[in-house]
Structure formats: structure tokens, C-alpha cells
């Protein structure tokens, strides 16, 4: 990453915890799109991603970044994935896309397991990624046209350069960039425009599923709203399915159909977005929601705030039993005994907490 860009990126990232995200409430519109209840595009079954960490020359221990995660994504939906830094969101997304070789578990895409060279090749075309960092993820030595057309060459989608250029122009227009800027280098673009280039690149191979890894968290709030609206427009236009990662529940609030909450490698709650906001059940979700500033003073007074104390433990030293027990205000000694299962406790509302499992 160029020094100046890196500094800007760090500044943006560091500024974000204090940003007033309530602007998103006003500026992000809700675009309705079609989702069928029983049409699943992607199924994740018992997925584990353990990284071997060397503790001495002779010994490694597994860092359990994703630990036995299972869920399904409906065609055309946006599944929000939230949780604190280090809980495993990026690793989960990357393992689904097979950018990491899973320790174990299965990915089913359009009803077929992603196994073997041919299936993986097709999957790579149909399942793509938009990265968090629009500075380091785009090569400064390449023109916008080269960046967007790279997947077209990798997947041998068009035979001629003229066909590829036509496609690049279409994609640039689709994401709100001027096609006249195709021959420019990325340093000429702002953070929001760079992220639009990243989105155009992810769209190049006509994917059905896109993993969006905190694609707006490095941007100013007003730009975040514009990019979130663009994601929604593109979803409707191309029938896309998103796994949309954020560490802040406000960012995914408007655009997610359902939201999964992740803690220390596990999904601890999964529900329809509105249900999750109106009726959060897992103590961790309640804490995350409490940390969102409430603009209405009446509502703010009525809300019982539950402040989350301490940091997320290292996955190398995960507590026994419930992973949240070291920070949970409702923890009892029994919580140390057994890992709570993610169970459906009312229609489409899944929770992994002993309080709801017995
Ligand atoms: N390649 C790797 N090798 C070893 N450990 C890793 C690797 N990638 C991630 N980890 C560890 O796995 C855990 C989960 O990391 P991950 O980046 O998936 O979290 P995250 O939820 O995306 O965090 P953030 O919000 O900061 O992006 C962390 O403890 C991290 O240090
Ligand atoms: S199982 Fe126990 S520690 Fe875990 S979230 Fe529920 S009450 Fe808290
Ligand atoms: Mg991440």
C-alpha cells in the first residue's frame, strides 16, 4: 500500500468507532427484493477453520477461528454477519469462498457440494468477494480497466479485448463510475470510488453470491450510505445474494434480511433483522445493541443498557462451555459445562444460550 494511502486508511478506520452512524438511518433506503423461503443458494455445514500456531519449534496448537458453524443463505437475500474484531467474520467468509482450505465441513452451492477442481472453478466464478480495504486491495500499478477485467481473463469469459472493454464499460456504469475513467490508475480515485471499482471487479464474472467483507467501514458515513444503497440496487438488478460482514449492527440494519451474530468462532444468534432488533435474546446480542446510541431520548431512557465489559478472549484460550461466559452478565457456573447449541427457539430465530436450550 502506498504510504499516503495507508495513513489515510488507518485514519479512516480509527475514526470510525466515534463516527455518528445515525446518519445511516436517514440515508440508507430499503430496496425490496424477491426471496423465496425454500430456495437456498448456499449451505454451510459444520465448517471449521483452525490455523496451526507454533508455540515452540516442535509444537503447534490450533487457533479455532471458525468452530463448527452451520447455516443456510436464501437466494437473493442479504445475510448480515456481525461481531467484534477478531470473532472470525473474515475467516468464515474466506473459508466459505475456499480462499482458505477448511479444516473440516462442507459448502453446498446451488444444491451441489463444492468439491473437486471443476466444481471449485465454477464456484470461483459464481462466488466472489468485495474487500474491506479499498486501498490495499486494488493494485496501484494497474488501470481501472485492467483491475475490473482481470477476472474476465482468469475465467476466460470473453475472447477479445474489445469484448472485455465493452463489459468493463457496462460494469463501471452499473456501479456509478464514468466509463471515461477506465484508463486511469486507482490513486486518482477517492475511497468511495475505489470501493465502487472493487464492486465492479467482484461483479465481472456475473456472480450469484458476493461476500462483502466490511466494504464500507473505512469510509465516511455519508459515503457509506451511498455505497450501501448501491449494493442494494445491484442486488435487485442482478438478483445477487450477499453475506455482508460488519462489526456494527447499525451498518447492516437496513440492508440485511437476516442477521447472524458471531462470537469467538461461533454463531450465537441468527434471526430476521427486525426480530433481532426488536427481540434480541442472546446476552451478547443485547450488549451489542446496547452499544448503539439511541437518537430518541425517550426510547434511550426506556432501553436497559447492558455495557459489554472487557475484550473478546483469544481463540487460543477460549473458555470452556459457552464462549461468552467470561463476559456474560447472566453467566452461572453451569455455563462452563457445555457448549450451547444453536437452536431454533421460535420460527426462524436461532439462539445458542443455555437459558433458552433447557
Ligand atoms: N491467516 C491466519 N493465521 C492465523 N490466525 C489467523 C489468520 N487469520 C485470522 N486469524 C485469527 O483468527 C481470528 C479471527 O480473525 P478474523 O480476521 O476472521 O476476525 P474478524 O471478525 O474478521 O475481525 P475484524 O473485525 O478485525 O476484521 C483472530 O484471532 C485472528 O488473529
Ligand atoms: S450460556 Fe450462560 S454464559 Fe453463555 S450466553 Fe447463556 S447465560 Fe451467558
Ligand atoms: Mg475481518
Characterise this structure.
The chain is an alpha/beta fold. It has one domain: Rossmann fold (3-Layer(aba) Sandwich), CATH 3.40.50.300. It is 34% helix and 22% strand. Helix 5 packs across helix 6, helix 5 runs parallel beside helix 7 and helix 6 crosses helix 7. The longest helix is centred in the middle third of the chain and has 18 residues. The chain is globular, with a radius of gyration of 21 Å. About 2% of the residues have low confidence. Bound molecules: adenosine-5'-triphosphate, iron/sulfur cluster and magnesium ion.
What key phrases describe this protein's structure?
single chain; 358 residues; alpha/beta; Rossmann fold; 8-stranded mixed sheet; 4-stranded antiparallel sheet; 12 strands; 34% helix; 22% strand; globular; binds adenosine-5'-triphosphate; binds iron/sulfur cluster; binds magnesium ion
Amino acid at each position: 500500500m502506498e504510504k499516503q494511502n495507508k495513513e489515510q486508511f488507518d485514519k479512516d478506520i480509527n475514526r470510525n468507532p466515534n463516527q455518528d452512524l445515525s446518519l445511516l438511518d436517514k440515508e440508507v433506503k430499503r430496496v425490496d427484493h424477491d426471496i423465496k423461503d425454500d430456495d437456498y443458494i448456499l449451505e454451510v455445514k459444520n465448517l471449521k477453520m483452525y490455523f496451526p500456531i507454533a508455540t515452540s519449534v516442535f509444537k503447534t496448537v490450533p487457533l479455532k477461528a471458525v468452530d463448527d458453524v452451520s447455516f443456510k443463505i436464501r437466494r437473493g437475500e442479504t445475510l448480515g454477519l456481525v461481531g467484534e474484531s477478531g470473532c472470525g467474520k473474515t475467516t468464515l467468509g474466506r473459508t466459505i469462498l475456499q480462499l482458505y482450505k477448511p479444516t473440516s465441513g462442507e459448502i453446498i452451492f446451488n444444491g451441489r457440494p463444492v468439491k473437486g477442481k471443476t466444481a471449485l472453478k465454477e464456484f470461483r466464478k459464481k462466488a466472489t468477494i468485495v474487500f474491506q480495504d479499498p486501498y490495499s486491495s486494488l493494485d496501484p500499478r494497474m488501470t481501472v480497466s485492467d483491475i475490473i477485467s482481470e477476472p474476465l481473463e482468469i475465467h476466460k469469459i470473453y475472447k477479445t479485448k474489445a469484448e472485455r472493454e465493452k463489459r468493463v464499460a457496462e460494469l463501471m456504469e452499473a456501479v456509478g463510475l464514468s466509463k471515461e475513467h477506465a484508463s486511469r490508475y486507482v490513486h486518482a480515485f477517492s475511497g468511495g470510488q475505489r470501493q465502487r471499482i472493487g464492486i465492479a471487479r467482484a461483479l465481472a464474472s456475473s456472480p450469484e453470491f458476493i461476500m462483502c467483507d466490511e466494504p464500507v467501514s473505512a469510509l465516511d458515513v455519508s459515503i457509506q450510505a451511498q455505497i450501501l444503497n448501491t449494493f442494494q440496487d445491484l442486488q435487485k438488478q442482478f438478483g445477487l445474494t450477499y453475506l455482508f460482514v460488519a462489526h456494527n449492527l447499525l451498518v447492516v440494519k437496513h440492508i440485511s434480511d437476516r442477521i447472524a451474530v458471531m462470537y469467538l468462532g461461533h454463531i450465537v444468534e441468527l434471526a430476521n433483522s427486525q426480530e433481532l432488533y426488536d427481540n434480541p435474546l442472546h446476552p451478547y446480542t443485547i450488549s451489542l445493541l446496547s452499544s448503539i446510541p439511541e437518537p430518541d431520548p425517550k426510547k434511550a431512557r426506556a432501553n436497559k443498557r447492558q455495557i459489554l465489559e472487557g475484550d473478546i478472549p483469544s481463540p487460543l484460550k477460549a473458555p470452556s462451555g459457552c464462549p461468552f461466559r467470561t463476559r456474560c452478565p447472566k453467566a452461572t457456573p453451569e455455563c462452563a459445562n457445555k457448549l450451547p447449541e444453536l437452536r431454533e427457539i421460535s420460527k426462524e430465530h436461532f439462539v445458542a444460550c443455555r437459558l433458552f436450550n433447557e
